[in-house]
Amino acid sequence: MHLSSARARAITSIQLHRVSTSEGSKLWATTSMAENAADGGAANPIVFFDLTLGVAFKNHFESHVWVAWMTLGILGEPLGRVKMELFADIVPKTAENFRQFCTGESKDPRGLPQGYKGSKFHRVIKDFMIQGGDFLKGDGTGSASIYGVKSFADENFHLKHDGAGILSMAVRTILYYSRLATEYGPRQNSGPNTNGCQFFICTVPTPFLNNKHVVFGKVVDGMDVVRKVENTRLRGERPASDVVIAQCGEM
Length: 251
Prior knowledge:
Elements: H1 5-12, E1 14-20, E2 26-32, E3 46-53, E4 68-72, E5 77-86, H2 92-103, E6 123-125, E7 129-132, E8 166-171, E9 173-178, E10 183-189, E11 195-202, E12 215-221, H3 223-230, E13 234-235, E14 238-239, E15 243-244, E16 248-250
Parallel strand pairs: 3-4
Antiparallel strand pairs: 1-2, 3-5, 3-15, 3-16, 4-16, 5-12, 6-7, 7-11, 8-11, 8-12, 9-10, 13-14
């Protein structure tokens, strides 16, 4: 997957500005200069998260929406930052759903911000992918969207799972109850046209997922951090220590 020269220029041409947080502290953030270009149009959104092995905590968002970022884990070992471009020019509905869950613009039925902040990567399969985004249940069974329903249809399959760093939509896991095991266990996923809040980042090319999952972005910086998550100690497919999104937003 290659960026057009115009998109590449828009992404690499940046300027610095200061952004206030809810605690009154300051941070440096980057904004595409294409946002202010009279004839260039806006570049695709860039979101990022800072990953840490830590402990999950309750969702909380600052009120600003122009700087989007995620920090995985508030306690524990910092893993680093991952930046992702969202392909809003190709899958605008899917990209916007993810972007709003990064910024906290989306509200739950009580009118409170909802999104990825405070959630964790609940599933990791080495040499395949890392999966997160279930801020409702934390185990892959939750689903929500910004469109007033729990899930929405597959937008298109124009983009392919052609390399490491591809960002794609994951679907909800449906659980069944086994009387013999006296416990719930994974049975199947919810199938086509059930996109919600869950996503995964590929760590290798996964062409067998083409035309089944909607690709909507790609890691543009921090693939080494994704590798750290991929290689974290596991219990089955779950990280032994939570990999938590402590902060998230849009650049």
